[in-house]
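Severity: low
Component: inverse-folding endpoint
Summary: output formatting inconsistent between runs
Steps to reproduce: submit the following structure tokens with default settings.
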């Protein structure tokens, strides 16, 4: 039995099945996403969602959904499912589902009387094309299958409505049709591997609702255009492939392409293999450059997220090549930023003050997980340039002070990963001396010294070591308080006493100014006040402003974003601190900490981890349905454990 399997009882219970989503990506920025019963619950859902550079470069939903109808003896059984006003679901095709499983491909089994139909979906790598294979596993009489495409042709962040400007024109292509609703869009090619009859029956399906958008206070109703339907007979044991993409193929190629995609997919047979598959979904290649998407369905490549996630998504699963390719792209962006040049590299938020420090940390993981010598040869000069750039005060929002610490202005705009803003102002105005920025700075100084020493530059290495000694002393004087934990930030007389997880970053680093007893006190406080079954809270319940439920309208959610919600990626720093404090005896504790995350393979977005969780039970998953830093953190800690215990 498949690891990811859902039976009839769950699939036919919409309260249980609708919140579960399935995501497929093609490594070129496009994706396909819906609920496991193929009822779209978000405006971001769609069978084929692709970036359209000719318009705005944003993702656009071309093919929203595809309704299947089984016809026998003139009786029609529609397998589709849509939500309409008044909490009405139609045509209730979910009642025919017998099971859904996902090993290599997401697969749904339907039973209509004596008919058993298997549906498998795959997104072709590096092509904007979704393929669906229908196999008639059993039937006792002549069976006809009808496919009715629902078209949107709109930005994934918007909704569309019936309008006179939508083109109804279409042209016949090999075993299918092509159509384009509006100028500027690519043509949508819909083809089948078998000869079929396309019946032109244009119509708008009005008032389709997306419950996730309704919950979040966004526009949630739209109209979708259906140009007609494809119809063909299918025999017992026969498989027919439907394809929707932005380029035409020979219909005879469709089955071969589907078979190839099936073969290259890694099976999802356990927690680890699910995470490996999820890691691959964040890969994004464009114009010969390699990136990491921060999350789906609405994020792009953000510099901080990329540097935090890259080691876990690549090195932790022994995919060194992609790490090096992505770092080659990132190095161009870093050099452009430090030179004050406008970059053509599509990495956003490179100017944030902690980003270059995370880049050094990212390279440090390469040294630890691959080879210190290789890190020196490949990235030693880059690390030295970054550290010099910061030390010389060339970063516009990192001011080196005489005490060795870095001062950052975050009063008017959010400058760290706690980046939510309301009415243009940070919810958490972290400013001045920020704890993880200065911990990362201390770490960067000593890591640079390590690389310089390995390169034979002893004098330079000694200089940075001396700088680190001053930074380390000032760090403890500034942040370590009498209660045994670290202040979150200190800004010209203002002290943030809030218990936050950023101190775990400081305690987990390879080079930390903290002693083992000091790390233990930090770990104990974080265990008591921040640790949950899903990860680490962004704020202690005992601290002022605790707001653990990420729900409601945009302003409500922004106010709660970092005020007690749980972020799994921080678990990596918690668990690394635990291993540094308790060594081998911490193994069983680390294993138990992951138990709550494994069950998430079956909730929210199947086989991956969401962006965040509520800070209070039942710790509901929230935000982006698949988040790179969270997946990476678990993979990285698994790798650390395997090296730590030599298994």
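Observed output (run 2 of 3):
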């Amino acid at each position: 039995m498949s690891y990811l399997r859902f039976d009839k009882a769950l699939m036919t219970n919409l309260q249980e099945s609708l919140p579960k989503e399935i995501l497929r990506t093609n490594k070129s920025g496009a994706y396909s996403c819906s609920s496991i019963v193929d009822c779209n619950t978000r405006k971001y859902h769609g069978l084929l969602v692709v970036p359209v550079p000719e318009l705005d470069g944003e993702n656009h939903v071309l093919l929203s959904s595809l309704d299947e109808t089984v016809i026998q003896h003139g009786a029609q059984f529609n397998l589709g499912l849509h939500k309409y006003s008044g909490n009405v679901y139609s045509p209730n095709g979910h009642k025919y589902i017998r099971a859904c499983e996902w090993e290599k491909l997401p697969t749904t089994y339907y039973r209509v009387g004596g008919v058993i139909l298997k549906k498998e979906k795959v997104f072709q790598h590096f092509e904007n094309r979704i393929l669906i294979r229908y196999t008639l596993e059993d039937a006792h009489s002549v069976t006809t299958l009808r496919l009715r495409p629902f078209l949107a042709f709109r930005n994934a962040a918007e909704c569309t409505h019936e309008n006179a400007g939508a083109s109804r024109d279409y042209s016949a292509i090999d075993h299918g049709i092509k159509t384009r609703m509006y100028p500027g869009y690519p043509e949508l090619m819909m083809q089948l591997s078998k000869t079929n009859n396309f019946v032109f029956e244009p119509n708008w399906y009005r008032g389709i609702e997306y419950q996730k958008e309704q919950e979040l206070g966004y526009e949630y109703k739209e109209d979708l255009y259906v140009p007609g339907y494809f119809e063909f007979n299918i025999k017992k044991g026969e498989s027919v492939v439907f394809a929707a993409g932005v380029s035409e193929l020979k219909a005879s190629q469709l089955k071969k392409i589907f078979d190839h995609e099936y073969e290259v997919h890694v099976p999802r047979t356990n927690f680890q293999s699910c995470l490996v598959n999820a890691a691959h979904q964040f890969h994004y290649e464009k114009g010969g450059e390699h990136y990491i998407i921060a999350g789906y369905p609405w994020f792009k490549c953000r510099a901080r997220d990329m540097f935090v996630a890259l080691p876990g998504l690549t090195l932790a699963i022994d995919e060194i090549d992609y790490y090096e390719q992505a770092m080659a792209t990132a190095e161009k962006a870093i050099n452009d930023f430090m030179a004050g040049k406008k970059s053509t590299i599509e990495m956003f938020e490179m100017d944030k003050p902690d980003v270059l420090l995370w880049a050094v940390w990212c390279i440090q993981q390469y040294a630890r997980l691959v080879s210190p010598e290789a890190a020196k040869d490949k990235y030693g000069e880059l690390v030295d340039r970054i550290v010099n750039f910061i030390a010389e005060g060339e970063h516009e929002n990192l001011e080196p002070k005489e005490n060795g610490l870095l001062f950052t202005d975050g009063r008017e705009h959010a400058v760290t990963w706690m980046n939510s803003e309301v009415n243009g102002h940070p919810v958490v105005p972290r400013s001045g001396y920020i704890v993880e920025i200065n911990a990362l700075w201390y770490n960067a100084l000593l890591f640079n010294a390590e690389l310089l020493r390995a390169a034979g530059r002893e004098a330079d290495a000694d200089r940075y070591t001396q700088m680190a000694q001053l930074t380390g002393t000032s760090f403890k004087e500034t942040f370590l308080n009498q209660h045994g934990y670290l202040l979150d930030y200190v800004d010209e007389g203002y002290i943030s006493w809030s218990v936050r997880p950023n101190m775990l970053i400081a305690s987990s680093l390879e080079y930390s100014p903290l002693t083992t007893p000091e790390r233990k006190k930090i770990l104990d406080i974080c265990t008591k006040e921040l640790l949950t079954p899903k990860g680490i809270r962004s704020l202690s319940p005992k601290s002022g402003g605790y707001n653990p439920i990420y729900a409601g309208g945009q302003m409500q959610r922004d106010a709660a974003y970092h005020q007690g919600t749980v972020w799994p990626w921080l678990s990596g720093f918690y668990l690394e601190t635990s291993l540094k404090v308790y060594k081998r005896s911490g193994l069983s504790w680390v294993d138990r900490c992951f138990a709550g995350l494994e069950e998430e393979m079956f909730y929210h977005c199947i086989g991956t981890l969401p962006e965040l969780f509520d800070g209070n039970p039942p710790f509901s998953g929230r935000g982006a349905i698949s988040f790179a830093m969270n997946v990476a953190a678990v993979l990285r800690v698994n790798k650390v454990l395997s090296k730590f215990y030599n298994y």
